[in-house]
Sequence to fold (496 residues):
Amino acid sequence: MDPLWIWTGVAIYVVIALVAAFVSRAGKAASMSDYFLGGRRMGGLVSAMSYSATTYSAFMMIGLAGLTYAGGVGALGFELLYLCGVVLIVIFGPRFWRVGKKYGFVTPTEMLAHRYSSRSVGATTALASCVFLIPYAAVQLAGVGYLLSGLSGGAVTFTAGTVLATALAIVFAMVAGLRSVAWTDALQSIVMVVSASLVVVLVVAHLGGLGSFFDALAAEPDGVLTVPGNGYFTFSTFIGLTLPWVFFMISNPQVSQRLYTPGSIRELRRMMLGFMAFGLIYTMISVVWGLSAILQFDELESADQATPTLLASDVVPSPLALIVMIGIMAAAVSTIDSIMLTLSSMVSRDVYRAARPGAGERGQLLIGKLTLPVIAGLAFWFAQLQLDLIAVLSVSASAGLLVLVPPIIGAFFWKRGTAAGVLVSVVAAGALVLVLEYTQTALLGQGSGVWGLGAAVVLYVGVSLLTSAPKQRAAEFIGTSSKPRRPRDRAETSLT
Fold:
């Protein structure tokens, strides 16, 4: 595609997104809650669209399509298990929302600090989140770089694409915090699903319709419609990829923080129903893209080039390819925005406040805003390394966050859990994941996420049983999470 068309499309997208971001501003966001949670007044539809654009980022149209190209239909099972894991919202969604409303939590790590009566828990889990989420943000930047480079035939460089995505993420996040990000997300998610659906229709029609499409796939020598197919999706690989995705909703703080934002549990329910419908459609689209690329292109230099190469081909009209490109880029920027906002809020709320207990809202908000470009810069640096498949790198980053799962589950269901148990499990299990990822070691054939989660469970439970904790705080927290805050909320607790 002509680079002039690409830059023209990008310019149009930037103008429209900036208008949406500035229009969404409702006065000055003067508090942490206003800036990072949209004032806890987000509606169900906007929340659903924002949640979808945040979750389904460059990982889907670039990463999942590339994973399908590399391993066949096994990628569909992998992603559908993520959607199955979203049912955890039935258990944890209302609990996050209730304790967030009562105690005024801004971050999930602040919630853990309160539950375990330890600011060290909040600071440690916040820093652990930074370690593993910055590479995940880098994946989104890399996705934009691969997309623009592949679509332009290299005329737009990988670095230029990542610079553009970084700049946009900083601007959107700085305008008005989550409120501007949420409204731009809502716009972006509509563009994403409509344009991508049209491409699927065109590509399948070009290949002779659904019948011919699946007949051609069935005739492929590597067995792309079977598992393990060409051998990529072995049992160990599948478990290693899937496990972090099953717990994604509670382990990734940029996602669980969104559970504080709806105005009521009813809006929370609408958010999740909308997200699951969007997710199912977008998953099928991404997998079909990857399968189509298998039929269209024999050998690509990188599987992550499947989507850019498909869009640059004669099968997809240039105007539609341009719209899809904007949708994918917008989704990636949306995820980076959310990660930046979450990490900056955790640094200011949990790390800075732990160091300076007397810090007020204004000081915390200032630190949070100053942290945003720092996090973006670190993600940009990491993206330049251009490591591995995007889908695999995404899962690797999420594997480290699995060490937060035992403390989060324990916070809501186990009064015996202690701060010492959290600190030891997060630090030791997190270090284990880092070592396994850095050395590319698969102990007994299993990925780092399997060992990290296993070690975290054993250490959290074992150390908690050997130490003591304030039982009254635990009982109060668990009781609050289990019951509606007001009598009129009882009718809205159908999620539980």
